[in-house]
From TrEMBL, chain A:
It comes from Anabas testudineus. Residues 349-364, 387-396 have a biased composition (Acidic residues). GO terms for molecular function: mRNA 3'-UTR AU-rich region binding. The keyword rRNA processing applies. GO terms for cellular component: cytoplasmic exosome (RNase complex); nuclear exosome (RNase complex); nucleolus. This is Exosome complex component RRP45. Residues 32-163, 189-255 form the Exoribonuclease phosphorolytic domain.
TrEMBL record, chain B:
Belongs to the RNase PH family. This is Exosome complex component RRP41. GO terms for cellular component: cytoplasmic exosome (RNase complex); nuclear exosome (RNase complex); nucleolus; nucleoplasm. Component of the RNA exosome core complex (Exo-9), composed of EXOSC1, EXOSC2, EXOSC3, EXOSC4, EXOSC5, EXOSC6, EXOSC7, EXOSC8 and EXOSC9; within the complex interacts with EXOSC2, EXOSC7 and EXOSC9. The catalytically inactive RNA exosome core complex (Exo-9) associates with the catalytic subunit EXOSC10/RRP6. Exo-9 may associate with DIS3 to form the nucleolar exosome complex, or DIS3L to form the cytoplasmic exosome complex. The keyword rRNA processing applies. One of its GO terms (biological process) is nuclear mRNA surveillance. InterPro entries: ExoRNase_PH_dom1, ExoRNase_PH_dom2, ExoRNase_PH_dom2_sf, PNPase/RNase_PH_dom_sf, Ribosomal_Su5_D2-typ_SF, RNase_PH. GO terms for molecular function: RNA binding.
Amino acid sequence: MKDTPLCNCERDFLLKAIEEKKRLDGRQTYDYRKIKITFGTDYGCCFVDLGKTRVMAQVSCELVAPKDNRPNEGIMFFNVELSPMASPAFEQGRQSELSVKLNRQLERCLRNSKCIDTESLCVVSGEKVWQIRVDVHMLNHDGNLMDAVSIAAITALCHFRRPDVGIQGDEVTVYSPEERDPIPLSIYHMPISVSFSFFQEGTYLLVDPCEREERVMDGLLMIAMNKHREICSIQSSGGIMLLKEQVMRCSKIASVKVSEITELINKALENDKKARKAGGRCGFAESMPQERITALKKDKTAVEMTDVSERANEIVQKAEALPQTVPSPVVPVPGVGQVGQGPQNTWGLDEEEDEEDSDEEQEEQVTKMEEEHSENKEESRGGEVVEISDSEEEEVVILHPEKPDRTPKNTGSTSHQKVAASSKKRTKK
Amino acid sequence: MAGLELLSDQGYRLDGRKASELRKVQARMGVFAQADGSAYLEQGNTKALAVVYGPHEIRGSRSRALHDRAVINCQYSMATFSTAERKRRPHGDRKSTEMSLHLKQTFEAAVMTQLYPRSQIDIYVKILQSDGGNYSVCVNAATLAVIDAGIPMRDYVCACTVGFVDETPLADLCYAEESGGVSSLALALLPRGGQIALLQMDARLHQDHLETLIEAAMTACKGVSKVLDEVVRQHLQEVSVLTGE
């Protein structure tokens, strides 16, 4: 299924908002959404929430034969899975452009920067090495998948423990976790990707775009860095023209963001370690009974509560007092009654008045018509009028100049006459 | 890699070049009669062939058509004999799919696609011999092919890779240097405005060195653009002689 396109109104609205430095979720231009890291019961399993974007990473390992050209190095394998449950736009089974992009970017971010010591994964040179497999699954897509993927992957790798191996002569023994404590991977540094989106030909820049913002953006720049301010990979995408200054500015912002995120990851890892040591329920299992597994769970949102009661009082005081209550029962006009408390009921009263008015009008019209009839008679008697045409309008026009001297008994104003004439015409038709 | 000395004390590289020296670029335009535009480009030992068809009506599913601009379709492939080890699949693996994506992105930025709504431009690039800098050679070859096809572009798109060794940026890396664990940066530039159409970097590099590296890449790209401009002018001269003008 193709993604539903964004309508022009919404597109314009988003772009206008970005121009005014406002974002849909109230963030500042360089703000990240809330990042939350939770771990599974097993080693090497982690969930990352980036706002509503949610991904899961699972690390696993197995013993395989090494590659011919690297006989004493372990193998790293990365796989990013875009399942249709994250977004209807993701298709099952087919490698889309996005999935290739994410896969390659993750590979470049983690493998090419050599953040993991692959030589320590060698068991028997040229025969057996560990293959570490990182599977990242999208659970919910709300923009900025790459950052969520990179955080999830590196956190899962840090959390992962591989079984210990003993070698005696030619014999290789893999010990179960009960026999010997599993060993963590040796990780040199933690590359974390930070995405920047560009709008309006690169005039506006946002950090951590959400899904809506991603749809209206012109291009994306992904910078992966570690906390030592070393850039591990840069990738621009989308047809935008960047200037060197923009790239430099982005790299500066990225270094700040990366150090924040690294701290967060370390804290999460430490918390998990403590929880495991304490022996209590930890990780993903713990969140199950609290129904926190769904993507659209409600988080507690902080609301400004300091001056709520004062403001409420203020509003009550400023508000207008209710109109006087009337004693019950009330009968304002015959046929209309009111029982109970509350302001006076005006229902039905207006309508009756209107009817009366219209009745009066009709009566007036009738009298005026009679008057006019008499006028006409006078005119014909005077014989001054040359022609009496069929047209009612002309009659009226002729009447005007002669009115003052020939109609002494007509006290009505000229406008009244006009009205009368036209009403006469109406009645005739 | 410890074994290879990428930059000697005298300031020479493995193949005898200076740090900021490009490899020899040789190119020809209009190598195929069938295609709308074609070009062959050699950059040192890396050789690429680019072919452009279009702009033409959308082929395949009509839903891909864009109402306000042309779709650019790129395919990158490597000849099976292009590398030292024979390649099994010329295209379709992750790396070449990614390369196709990058080429597409580069040319979407450079070609004036808004002139051809609801149409498609195909760019096919094949690496005949690979000796480092595949992406940049492809971009340079494709630029010539697009120009040969007469499709308007904002500017030449020139690409170049740059490495960083011993605090010195090395321009236009060859395969030995690329695989030697140098942090390399590929950059596609529209030289006149200094706009970057694509920026890609692998391996670790400290943030402070980024600026010098980008700077070096931009100078290298400008050098390439001069060569390409010369090729285009020479080609036009040859063609106008042939048509008797």
